């Protein structure tokens, strides 16, 4: 008898169904009905949408709930190295990625019930989320939207404990619209009538207005960053404030000032969802939170060994202009604390605004090595990406791989040990973690 393998099951699905997204809820709703509507048997759901910060909010929410002793399921997308990363099942020791045999069986079950009908792989795998989360005990489920909100396959949850909208900026314009208010309207589609809503820090007043108006129209109890809650830095610590008062907390373990706002949104979301989190649990969450591939420091690994001696290496999968800004700000903070020359090693895909991303690093990065993203069919050729970096005013050159960039830098470097940012795509970040021998666990 052949043993089921999740990788083989997904590979088989890829041969049967189209890649990408097909924004509609009809197919996933039909499949879920045939599966007995497992999405209606979930623990309280924290449903998170937004352009940037979704994953960080999910990570903080998980850390908060687990620090308070709750069992938590977490669904995120995309994965970095293995599909299993998308499904973290609750456990007493802080949760674990789904076991391969459990994962494979759920995929096979969903595929069998679908019976070859037209559907996308993402929709089948979203149904798998609901199968897994409904059949394993937990006290909360954190579910990150894949794309947009209104027609995302996760948006079949009728009564979320809270809907969270993180910062919105231009991204996925081909699917969501070419103006920020159109994108905001799509993200706001996860709000459900009468259910609590948390609106994270928004750079666009237009987007914020769309979100508030939608929440008001649906009679949703709503808290808004900067109005009803906020966080700020004071004496190297984080102060969180809402109607219940102040909490003096350690700075979040995830680097960058933007993580203060992300942490604040998670605290507000967990409270809005009905969970009581003590000051002590919140302190623990700030110091224990982890989110691979997002301003992740790489202290060791196969690739790290190729870098100039003493180099400080960071990895981040941020891939649009909004992400570029917050990453550049985080690196500027590092520069203030510990000055080092900044070098970028970048790979991106062709659905992103590459020049807009690189523009955030003008005046900060000394040089950019551009590499191809071989893990995606949409990878931008390295020579073309170098031109986009040059358009943003950066010194850039194409090389064949991250390893080549690091060795070239090592052999030519003459000066203080550099700070290196590897990033520009989550596909790229995942490939780097895999090659470095440090995949998420």
TrEMBL record:
Its EC number is 6.3.2.-. It comes from Mesorhizobium australafricanum. Belongs to the folylpolyglutamate synthase family. Keywords: ATP-binding, Ligase, Magnesium, Metal-binding, Nucleotide-binding. PANTHER family: DIHYDROFOLATE SYNTHETASE-RELATED (PTHR11136:SF0), FOLYLPOLYGLUTAMATE SYNTHASE-RELATED (PTHR11136). This is Folylpolyglutamate synthase/dihydrofolate synthase family protein. Residues 48-270 form the Mur ligase central domain. One of its GO terms (molecular function) is ligase activity. InterPro entries: Folylpolyglutamate_synth, Folylpolyglutamate_synth_CS, Mur-like_cat_sf, Mur_ligase_C_dom_sf, Mur_ligase_cen. PROSITE patterns: FOLYLPOLYGLU_SYNT_2. The keyword Heme does not apply.
């Amino acid at each position: 008898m052949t043993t089921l393998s999740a990788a083989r099951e997904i590979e088989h699905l890829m041969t049967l169904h189209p890649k990408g997204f097909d924004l509609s809820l009809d197919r996933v709703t039909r499949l879920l009905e045939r599966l007995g509507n497992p999405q209606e048997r979930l623990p309280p759901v924290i449903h998170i949408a937004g352009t940037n910060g979704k994953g960080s909010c999910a990570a903080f929410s998980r850390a908060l709930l687990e620090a308070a002793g709750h069992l938590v399921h977490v669904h995120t997308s995309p994965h970095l190295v293995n599909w299993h990363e998308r499904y973290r099942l609750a456990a007493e020791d802080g949760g674990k990625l789904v076991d391969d045999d459990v994962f494979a069986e759920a995929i096979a079950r969903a595929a069998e019930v679908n019976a070859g009908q037209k559907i996308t792989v993402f929709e089948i795998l979203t149904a798998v989320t609901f199968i897994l989360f409904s059949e394993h005990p937990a006290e909360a489920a954190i579910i990150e939207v894949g794309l947009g909100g209104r027609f995302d396959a996760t948006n079949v949850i009728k009564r979320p404990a809270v809907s969270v909208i993180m910062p919105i900026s231009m991204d996925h314009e081909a699917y969501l619209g070419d103006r920020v208010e159109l994108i905001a309207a799509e993200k706001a589609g996860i709000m459900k009538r009468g259910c609590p809503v948390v609106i994270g820090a928004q750079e666009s007043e237009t987007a914020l207005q769309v979100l508030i108006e939608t929440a008001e129209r649906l009679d949703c109890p709503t808290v808004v960053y900067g109005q009803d809650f906020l966080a700020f830095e004071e004496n190297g610590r984080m102060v969180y404030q809402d109607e219940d008062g102040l909490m003096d907390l350690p700075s979040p373990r995830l680097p960058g000032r933007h993580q203060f706002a992300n942490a604040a949104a998670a605290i507000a979301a967990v409270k809005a969802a009905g969970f009581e989190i003590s000051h002590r649990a919140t302190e623990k969450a700030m110091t224990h939170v982890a989110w691979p591939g997002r301003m992740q420091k790489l202290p060791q690994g196969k690739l790290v060994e190729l870098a100039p001696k003493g180099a400080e290496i960071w990895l981040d999968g941020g891939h649009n202009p909004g992400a570029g800004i917050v990453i550049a700000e985080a690196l500027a903070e590092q520069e203030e604390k510990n000055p080092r020359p900044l070098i970028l090693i970048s790979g991106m895909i062709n659905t992103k605004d590459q020049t807009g991303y690189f523009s955030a690093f003008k005046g900060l990065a000394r040089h950019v090595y551009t590499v191809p993203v071989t893990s995606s069919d949409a990878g931008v050729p390295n020579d073309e990406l170098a031109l986009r970096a040059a358009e943003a005013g950066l010194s850039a050159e194409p090389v064949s791989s991250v390893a080549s960039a690091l060795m070239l830098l090592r052999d030519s470097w003459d000066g203080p040990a550099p700070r290196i940012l590897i990033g520009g795509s989550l596909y790229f970040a995942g490939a780097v973690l895999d090659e470095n021998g440090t995949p998420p666990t």
